[in-house]
């Protein structure tokens, strides 16, 4: 199959932004697999020998776990990017845990294969460098958000980010998982979701959250959601639709 028509590349915007000749560098080594919800891609301290590219509606998160068992999400990655050894020059120990939030297809690539492709193509290297900068911006903004912003604003920010990736008002997320990702007790999160529902911003159902009023939810969220989106727009040339869904990334420069 000719790489520029390979359907595997269409589900992930980072791969889709590659030029045909750069896709050809990766195509023979990409493995498509279905990932289950809560599946661990790698644990803290493990050597990261593979990069995972969420495709379609699949979503993964980088999670920090403390000694007392508490967890908090520091970055969420969907079809706009990749998770794993994107920056490193080889197999290095992971600082965080990577876990699948929303089940679905993912493309997997050996880290070494990406390094070889970077060495062969300045354009591909440039695209992944720009994405790495955006991923770091998301992590840094998450740190600031977790430290400074109230739970309602943080929760609204997180819901908006998931809707951006799924392109749907119905978000298949449980109270328990969202509480873990936000680093709060489930009872605290339940009160927060109830408040957002009373403001008619969302509807809470068993195993899912429905966004009822996105503009009002954006107004409720802290500035972190907008700040990260603006950085993606500036650095990666991200294009968003009216619903906030990411549509495309600027192709890699020649």
TrEMBL record:
Gene3D superfamilies: Jelly Rolls. Keywords: DNA-binding, Transcription, Transcription regulation. It comes from the Bacteria. GO terms for molecular function: DNA binding; DNA-binding transcription factor activity. Residues 149-215 form the HTH crp-type domain. Pfam families: HTH_Crp_2 (PF13545). GO terms for cellular component: cytosol. The keyword Repeat does not apply. SUPFAM superfamilies: cAMP-binding domain-like, Winged helix' DNA-binding domain. This is HTH crp-type domain-containing protein. It comes from Methylobacterium frigidaeris.
């Amino acid at each position: 199959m000719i790489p520029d028509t390979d359907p595997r590349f269409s589900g992930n915007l980072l791969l889709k932004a590659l030029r045909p000749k750069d896709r050809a560098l990766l195509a023979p080594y990409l493995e498509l697999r279905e990932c289950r919800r809560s599946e661990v891609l790698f644990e803290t301290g493990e050597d990261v020998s593979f990069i995972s590219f969420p495709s379609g509606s699949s979503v993964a998160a980088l999670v920090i776990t403390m000694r007392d068992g508490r967890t908090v999400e520091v970055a969420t990655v969907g079809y706009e990017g990749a998770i794993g050894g994107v920056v490193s020059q080889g197999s290095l120990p992971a600082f965080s845990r990577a876990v699948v939030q929303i089940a679905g297809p993912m493309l997997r690539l050996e880290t070494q294969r990406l390094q070889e492709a970077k060495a062969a193509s300045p354009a591909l290297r440039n695209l992944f460098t720009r994405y790495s900068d955006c991923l770091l911006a998301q992590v840094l903004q998450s740190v600031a958000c977790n430290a400074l912003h109230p739970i309602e604003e943080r929760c609204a920010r997180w819901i908006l980010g998931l809707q951006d990736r799924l392109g749907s008002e119905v978000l298949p997320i449980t109270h328990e998982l969202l509480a873990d990702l936000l680093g709060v007790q489930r009872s605290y999160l339940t009160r927060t979701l109830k408040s957002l529902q009373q403001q008619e911003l969302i509807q809470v159902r068993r195993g899912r959250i429905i966004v009822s009023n996105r503009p009002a939810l954006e107004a409720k969220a802290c500035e972190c959601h907008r700040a990260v989106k603006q950085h993606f727009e500036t650095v990666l040339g991200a294009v968003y639709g009216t619903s906030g869904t990411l549509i495309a990334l600027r192709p890699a420069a020649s």
